[in-house]
Amino acid sequence: MKVSVEKLPTSEAVLDVELSWDELEKASDKAYRKLVQKVDVQGFRRGKAPRSLLERKLGKEYIYQEGLDELITETYRSAIKEHELNPITKPELDAPVFEMGQPYHFSVKVPIITPVELGDYLSLHFEREEAEVTSEEVERELESMRNRQITWHEVERPAEYDDRVTVDLELTVEEKNISDLKDNPFELTRERPGMFSGMDEHIVGMKAGESKEFTTVLPEDYSNEKLAGKEGHYKVTLHKVEVKEVPELDDALASKVSDGQYNNLEDLRKAISDSILESKQRRIRDDLREKVVNAVIEQSKITLHPLLVHEEAEEMLHQLSHVLEQQRMSLDQYLLMMKKTREEYLKDVEPDAKKRVERELVLDQVANQEQVTVLPEEVEAFFRAYEQAGQPIQRTEAQIRAIVINYRREKTITRLVELTTDPDPTEEAAEEETSMENAEAAALAGETVNVEDNVSTETVNAEDAINTEIEAVNTEDTVKTETEEARSQSDEAEVRGTNDTAVDVVE
User: Fold this and answer.
1) 424-455 tens-digit pLDDT
2) Domains in the chain, start-ordered, CATH in brackets?
3) Coil, helix or strand at residue 357
4) What is the spatial distance between Cα 297 and Cα 454, in angstroms, rounded to a whole number?
5) Residue 356 CB-half CA count within 13 A
6) pLDDT digits 0-9 by tens, 302-350
7) What is the pTM of this model?
8) With helix as H, strand as E and coil as C, how does 87-105 read?
9) Neighbour count for residue 8 (Cβ, 10 Å)
10) How many whole angstroms separate alpha carbon 315 and alpha carbon 303?
């Protein structure tokens, strides 16, 4: 047997195989031994019929073809393993009809994942940004809380700026109705942008029950060019004037806005400051993680087969469909609203799909190189957290594998940040927490990674499944490839398609 493997720059591999007639003879003997156990031949128990009688029943060529099909499958599997190829999908087989007594040649072409060539990411260095909170930011948030506690009280006096008025309002431009509002409340302001610019000054001074007509000029820079600079005619009837009551900024307000958690203003200020600081630190960490990953991707040499990008685009469409279902909208309705076909949408998301695949491949390659692993207790902690929060996640093989893959990639980003920044014990602990939070957020949002079609979606024994999936993910590439079992199944469907004559196993 002669086997040659050529890796093409298009992320495909071509296997050329030449088999001797002696190898075909041996394969046919093996096929005979299998078939004789399945086929009934009159006068013989199963497994006992001579080959000559089985050939007479099924045809000599049939037995040779069965042996050849099996040999092709075995050769393909062996070559894939020996040359460390990661097929993306089923192979394309070029297998001519064999001739008795002659050597046999066949070829297989299969899309593969081309290993990423990482750059020197250890040479990268990033500075950690320091998060700071100013007193102005705290007071601004405090004022926002205070404003959310504002109450309105009706008054019997002419309207003033900062009052809230309820009006019927009709606006026409060149005798065309532009706006017709009924019982519409809004706050009077000295500076109102847009179409209603200049309106408030005419309403100031009006009383409840009063009607008024007036004109304004719409702004020259108004977005609708047909209306910009035109004269607008108003008809306004005022129904109600309300004045706002702003609560005092005191301990009572602190207790109210915090539901009694803080009994004085200074404690509330401290809590607001801590919250703003934590939010800024999280944003800085997220920005740094993204910056590091993008730099590593930029350094790397990545070759993608179009099928990987297409499958990721399909996955993005599936995720969109899931989100739409939660909003009680079908994918077809959404596409109709967007005036796009399914194919047009897939084409639009291809650039993002390509970036997602590149990111996954690079992170998986770094994870392998840095020996990043996920521990069973980490996955268990993940499940327990959601159970304690009253949001249990079903423990299926597919779900466990998706969680392990997501978490391993997040841990890989954390490792890259450690390698490319100066040590900071506080931030390193926060990075670990961020890894878990990001993996959790992906699970809650319904995000998935591509897992093999044969991975079970049935609830499984958690401990066994977690250990199995962790072992698989920690030792293999995790972008969608076919497992050994899946490859076997696809081989049967694709490679063994040469002998399509049915065998009648009952005489």
Assistant:
1) 766 666 666 676 666 666 655 544 444 444 44
2) 2-113+493-498 (3.30.70.1050), 151-245 (3.10.50.40), 304-352 (no CATH), 371-480 (no CATH)
3) helix
4) 31
5) 21
6) 999 999 999 999 999 999 999 999 999 999 999 999 999 999 999 999 9
7) 0.74
8) ECCCCEEECCCCCCCCCEE
9) 14
10) 20
